[in-house]
Amino acid sequence: LLTFLFVVTGFVYTFFFRTGAGLEGYVDALYFTVATVTTTGFGDIVLPGIAGKLTAIVTMIIGISLFVRLAQALFRPNKVFFPCPQCGLQRHEADAVHCKACGHLLNIPDEGD
Fold this sequence. Notes:
Blueprint: H1 2-15, H2 22-37, H3 49-75, E1 79-81, E2 91-93
Antiparallel strand pairs: 1-2
Helix pairs in contact: 1-2, 2-3
């Protein structure tokens, strides 16, 4: 993700923000790239100056990271800690009957009756 952001930022800087002086032009390009990639848009309220844009960039990147983590938690099945006595694999699905790695019969305790 970071490589993609900096490659696109370089492209945007080269073709659109070259007239900006030094670091400020590059930060404008990076701000545009991150705001576009994260689909947050630009809106009417923006933070002033380079520090404001850098703050917005960090916030957007952290927001995307948290969204990815949330998606992983929703779509990746929960696993329980129960070491396999045969091969030592420690994390299994809660309803596993056999070890995924070696096929050994498991007896995972549950919170049921």
